[in-house]
Amino acid sequence: MDDLQLNISVTKKIKPKPGPAKSLDEYKFVSKPQLTGKTLARKRPQNLSGKNIKLDGPQRKFAKLSKPEKNTINLDARLLDLSENKGKYHGKDYQEINDELQIKQKPRSGAWISSLFKNNPDVPKIGQKAVKPLVEKVFAGTTFADLDIHPHSVANLQQNLSLKELMTVQQKAVPVILQGRDVLIRSQTGSGKTLAYALPVIEGLQAIRPKINRHDGVRVVVVVPTRELAVQTYELFVKLVKPFTWLVPGLLSGGQKRKAEKARLRKGLNILIGTPGRINDHLRHTQSLNFAKTGCLILDEADMLLDMGYEIDVAAIVKAIEDHKKAATYDPLALVKQNMKQNTEDETKDCVSGSSVSEEQKSDIKHKLTEVFLSKERQTILLSATLTKAVENLAGITMVDPVFVDTSEGRAVVADSLKYDHIGGKKVSEKLNEVPEKKCIIEDAPMVKEKNVNKTEKKNNKRGLVEFSGLSHLDLFDVKVKEEIPKPVPMANNTENSDSDSDYDYFKVQKQFESKKPATEVVEKDLEPLVKESTFQKAVHTALVEDELILPESVNQTFLIVPMKLRLVTLCSLIVENCVLKKKGGKIIVFMATLEMVDYHSELIETVLTGDKVKVKKKDAKGKKSIDKKRKTNKAENEESDSDSTESDYNIDYEEPVEGGLVPVNLEMFSLHGSMPHERRIEVFKQFRAARNGVLICTDVAARGLDVPAVDMVLQYCAPVSATDYVHRVGRTGRATQVGAAVMFLLPSEAEFVRHLEQRRIRLCQADESKALEPLRSVAPAAANAARAAIAVQTRLEHTAHSSKEWLARASRAYTSWVRFYSGYPREVREWLDARKLHLGHAAKAFALRDTPAVLARRVKNLPSVKEKPTNRLTVHREEEKKRPGFPRMKIGGYGSNVTNKQSSMHTASEYDSGLPPLERIQKQKKRKNK
Ligand SMILES: Nc1ncnc2c1ncn2[C@@H]1O[C@H](COP(=O)(O)OP(=O)(O)OP(=O)(O)O)[C@@H](O)[C@H]1O
């Protein structure tokens, strides 16, 4: 490949003839049509002679890159020359070869050397381990008519949503939710979880008589982690309530005008869907928001809600519901009565629970859920495709007698916390895998403590629970067998730090503990008394301990090992292959690490591939002023360094971008990240959802819950921060059994990251990197092979990135943000994603930059800060707490975890900034230390 280090920028006629027509078909990978200015970055002195050469003929938009004219010295000819004269150049260094070519081929222009294929590390071949992925049966084989729901709902689903057959999670979860039970649901991505909770909740609400109206207060609260997911969920509720016009859903998703939202709340709504920060914000500022009548709390993507640092907001919402309900139940007369007359236990129970369901009403009620809505109780539903210890803790704290619904094959369970079992025999998982699914009636195990029985009975009575038919692993155990006892994982009130790092360590240790357990220990355990655990606890523990992840079977998962310098062109190649060369077009989601990367790459690729000039915001003109101002004030401190770096970095002449795009079709590019203005964010999401083809470049803000139809491919340009994130990213394709593809880019140094995923039962195979650049030949037909086409495309990308100060600033920012992000990967993946193994010079190439890392870092340092305040995180800030002393203070880490954990900081990093604390803060810290 080394023979491909070429000067490729001279591609023009020897004798330019006047007249516009002739240049039309000219091969478009030309150097700048006109050189202006003094120097180019890395331009060599002997190339300056060509600086006044002009190209004739108009530039063409979406120029067809057909074969060049015969009398032109084109890239191809020059490459050919080089390959034919390989021997001649043997022993000469790269610079000499280039010089010779420059001299030989006149006229010369400002040229630089593309070293795209030089010094790249070898691509390792990673053998595939025999991993048997965990699978899930998506469709249940029964219909919505089989559920005990209103016929209007069934008809509505069929007519307006074209849904007839039930998905497995819906089949299992709907009956349990209709019973008013608290439920923890784990099911793979795209398996219909939203409908699984929305349908029964509406069923429960519509049955309330007399009919409720919008002024009746918030009956259901749905909390989701992102605005897009909030909008999507709200839209589904709007569709589902069509037959029941008296039910009003409402959206509070942040980023919108608070005034409008306040007005909406004042007008009244029954189903509130929102992001935790914004709901909490209204709890503090909007009097009309009251949860006194809230009978159902749903936390979708529960693990992410806790991971993202929304934990305090979630805790505040739970507390607000409890407080509002308590306040509404407060009845001094009843209390006096209770104290004075010592009411019977039943009366007391009625008073405390505040049940307001009359006997007459009860007889009409079909589902227990409706009764819950009429009482002072609350149902809690937690959902996610992935479980964490923090979710288990949350379940322990917020739920009463919960049921666990897990739909993965081999262990599909509906595990009831009201049912107890001894832990005995083999590991729970082994048992579950051994025995096929079967229907069962759950019965209490005989050795349940007296106290537990009473509690269970009480709760049963309270809610009038009936046994539900479903699947449980309870009956898979022979309770009399007394064998090895897995170390129980504590449930509620766990004070352990639940951040992802500690979770991981915890599980790792636990796994090691189990695998290394000596035989003698088992014997010893035999002597211990039987430990009792509810089937719920057992099932959740099993799921957590085994720590395996489920992905849709319909997704073909591959990874592509790409040397750093080739990453950008390989990305372009995949986009061309999937969105341009396919007749039908295609839809791709590309995940990147930081918002700077998202902005820069989407604009760069759009400009180069489609020829649509993206107006890069001229922040830097303004910024320079602010730098100057700053410089004046800090003159004494920074005089020398500032002036040096800024001047030298900006004293270059920018290259004129080449007009016209490389692809003839209209390729739509979209970008999405957490710092975009709300309207734009929602608009992008809706546009991409409606688009037939296009590329969405985004941060992990789009990784959760988003349901975009017909996404052909998910491309992870930057490796995810955890295996869980991998699952959610991939889950954007292959939804509801659709076929999809997932590709993950890895550097040669990152290759072993695959092993980490395999440990979690994720099976990926290696894609052939030698063919990855092939599609680029279609946009550069004059190139003799894929590598040459790649060089040409890279040149074009670099031209654009160096075409103005704004472009260069963006590119440099994106680069540094990525470097910072990379060094912040969490501990559990740092072994494979190690910043010390990065070649920062090669990385610059992947950002179409030509400067050294030191120059780039200096440039970014002198750029004005563009750090925008996060717009979608109206979380409970400590300052706000101080300002509003009346509001109940939530203890940070109230659910047994530290809010500012590594995982959350990574999420925040990828969303809102570059991943490192602002420079000022570091300087302050240093100063403090020095003092
Ligand atoms: N019974 C059904 N039959 C066919 N399609 C369905 C059914 N139920 C839901 N869907 C569709 O499946 C897709 C995925 O649903 P949904 O977004 O609820 O999945 P999810 O499990 O919440 O995914 P994630 O974990 O990614 O949030 C949606 O497009 C939805 O319309």
Automatic annotation (TrEMBL):
InterPro entries for this protein: DEAD/DEAH_box_helicase_dom (IPR011545), Helicase_ATP-bd (IPR014001), Helicase_C-like (IPR001650), P-loop_NTPase (IPR027417), SPB4-like_CTE (IPR025313)
Bias (Basic and acidic residues) occurs at 866-884
Biased composition of type Acidic residues is found at: 639-650
Instruction: Tell me if Glycosyltransferase is a UniProt keyword of this record.
Output: no
> Spans of biased composition, class Polar residues?
897-908
Q: What are the EC numbers?
A: 3.6.4.13
The record's annotation in Pfam families points to: CTE_SPB4, DEAD, Helicase_C
Q: Where in this chain does the record put each Helicase C-terminal domain? A: 567-777
Q: Which UniProt keywords apply?
A: ATP-binding, Helicase, Hydrolase, Nucleotide-binding, RNA-binding
Catalytic reactions of this protein: ATP + H2O = ADP + phosphate + H(+)
Where does the record place the region Disordered? 625-650, 866-931
Q: Where is the Helicase ATP-binding domain?
A: 174-405
Kindly give the CDD domains that the UniProt entry links to this protein.
Answer: SF2_C_DEAD
Q: Does the keyword NAD apply?
A: no
Q: What class of enzyme is it?
A: hydrolase
Family that this chain belongs to: Belongs to the DEAD box helicase family.
Cited function: RNA helicase.
Quoted from the entry, the domain comment is: The Q motif is unique to and characteristic of the DEAD box family of RNA helicases and controls ATP binding and hydrolysis.
Q: What is this protein called?
A: ATP-dependent RNA helicase
Q: Which organism is it from?
A: Chilo suppressalis (Asiatic rice borer moth)
Lineage per the UniProt record: Eukaryota, Metazoa, Ecdysozoa, Arthropoda, Hexapoda
